[in-house]
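Example with several molecule types.
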Amino acid sequence: MEDVNYLFQQCINGLQLGAVYALIALGYTMVYGVLRLINFAHGDIFMLGAFIAYYLISKFNIPIYLVFAITMVCTAAAGYIIEKVAYKPLRNAPRISLLITAVGVSLFLEYFLSLKFLFTANYIGFPRPFEVEVYDLSLFTITNIQLIIFAVTAVSLFFLYLLVYRTKYGKAMRAVSYDQEAAALMGINIDATISLTFIVGAALAGVGGILYSIAYPQINVFMGIMPGIKSFIAAVLGGIGIIHGAVLGGFVIGVSEVFVSGFLSSTFRDGVIFIILFLVLLLKPSGIFGKRIEKV
Amino acid sequence: MKALAVENLEKGFGGVQAVDGISFSVEEGETVGIIGPNGAGKTTVFNLITGFYRPDRGNILFYGKNIAYLPPHRLPRLGIARTFQNLRLFGKMTVFENILSAMLVQGRYNLFSAIFRWTDYFVTESKAEEKARKLIEFFNLSGKEDQSADSLPYGEQRRLELARALALEPKVLLVDEPGAGMNPIEIQGLVQTMKEVKKQFLLTVVIIEHQMGLVMNISDKIVVMDFGEKIAEGTPDQVKKDRKVIEAYLGEEPL
Amino acid sequence: MKFFWEARKVILPAVLVYLVLKAIFGFHLVSGYIEQITLFSFIVILTSLGLNVIYGYTGQFSLGHAAFYGIGAYISAYLSKSLGVESILGFIPVLFLSGVSAGLVGCLIGVPILKLRDDFLAIATLGFGTLVRVILDNSDRFSEILGGSRGFVGIPRITNLELAFFVTVFLILVTRNIIFSRYGLFWRCVKNDELASQAIGINTSRMKLMAFSYGCFLAGIGGALYAHLYTFLHPSNFDILKSIDFLIIVIVGGMGSIVGTIYAGLIWVGFIEGLRIALPADMLDLRWVFIPLFLIGLMMWRPYGLIRKGG
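Resulting structure tokens for the full complex:
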């Protein structure tokens, strides 16, 4: 019985982490869809979200829903600016140039924000915006933090779904990721659509950053690197460019990571995630929901 | 002697049957043209013969040997070379290097000869360079050896691709729409070149072409495809009169 | 075998440079620190050259080059420590073996991941780099002397001017000879157009694997020299930032240019170490603010090379 409880508990903890990964993975997968770019800076947007929320809570003490709203606006702006300044000039450059630029943007954000007069390179305790409560459901326990994470993730996914599948902007995004040239010929504004994709992705990463910091209340300018890479792996696992794939991938990666920590050793969890990546790339590079394409 | 025989070849992509049980054969020394409307499956046949696609079913015999399931890089060694519909040159490399690389594929020295500069390195390299220069001369590209391939005008790029394929010293040459994007005068030149090439290199040629003037002029035999199937086969004159062919082309191009 | 005869134009100046360096170091005209970073710059050139073979010549983008550098460093240090190697003569087989091991590891992981292209290859090599980092961090679980996250200490100091200089010159010549042979030509074909390469009979997966393994071999040699120059290894010396270092050197020097890589390696080490002297300690963090900006600038204006206009 003990073991079963432990197993369930680890599942819940894994889903909590997975929810955050899913939120980040969405940004990766959507940007990859429209630009064919692994936006390495996306993990840093997530970090930025955590820091903005930290300042909003600790310095201004404003209600939590406003923290979410302001953070989302700020990270969305950051995503928009990064795309306009760093990626747009390279729209016609080889993909590797764009990728290297993305790595550059990521490093710049990390090291610039780690300067002493900004966020510094130290770990900072993230203030809990509310008291933690634990509910015992006999099979496992669940905290209000976890409930909030699940609820916020669900709401975010719902709105994302509405945006992508029920509005013309979403239709434009899907069209651009299907075939950019054809979409342009149909009169879709490519630049605006790409900007919108970055804005939406960055806003979701901002939400992810807050949720992650509430659950694991230690923040640092380099905190975005590993969750960023893992979320990208989640996006690949689900099938890059596919929205529900990113969500599923996020949960799978989150649960696997927690299982490795819980049943094996936490030092190996990063290694295991990359082994998952290698397996996916070897066995089905197009991911769980991806289709195989043969091309000459 | 049959140089190439395609037997009941099938290939589908998703729901689309691109090549649907096609068979034809090419005698040694013959020039065979494959024609058909857009999307008829001509290039797919080429990609199947040259190993870029794996057939779902069927055989491809090259002098009696089944080559249908070989990877593409094995075929030039056997004696099959191809060109591409949308030119595939090594754009950032020079004209000379484009040809030399094809020459050296069959080269006979190993990595250690290369590192320590053993004699067979020098012998192989100088032989290949000499042959490459001759080929460049034959294709009227002399003086442009050191230009990068993508700096050449379109017509010369076409010639360079043909030269590179011939550098492999193939027995069978597959040419995919050599006349694409050329004007009638350039086509005339191309017909001339193709005829000379054939004579000079003793080749068997399979050619896909939309330009009827070109294909009718140089082919001994024509295979007509439509919707992945062979609808007619025969000499240019026979094919021109074929009912099915006229139907397939009606409104597209007068023959 | 005309190896040395062909290379005479390189060997003569190289010997001259060696004699000058020997004199400068012999008469203590520069500090031991300068001496050390001079040797280090050779190591950086060698390792970057490996990445240039992989990325610059063959077009296979790798973000995990430092991992192979680290593998070479750790294997050589483990071998020389457990075998008690202390002399140069004893070290040469260790050096070679470390390079071969790094090359072999490159070959093993290259088989699956070199099927991937561009960005997926980037993420896979990055993943491999992280995996190696995790293993090095936990290496004390396998063998105590590897040190794990505390670092590998007490490696004998064997790398000297002669070793670092002549190994580097020799391997540069070897690389040059490979580049100017059918293999180098095929690598460039693969980079230009993989399908066309197959169409002329190049076994592209074999060529990619060969270039990748050879590049990793050079990194392994570089790592082994590094371990026996600084006598201390830490897993953080081999993380992604280090890979980015090598990448910047390749791009600054020019993709597919050996000479460019040599200049860029010298300039880069000089620049980074110069900043260490010029900037006060608390301003050092600024380096990694400006390096990424520099990298972004390169991508916008000279994505293939600054010193040499690579392609």
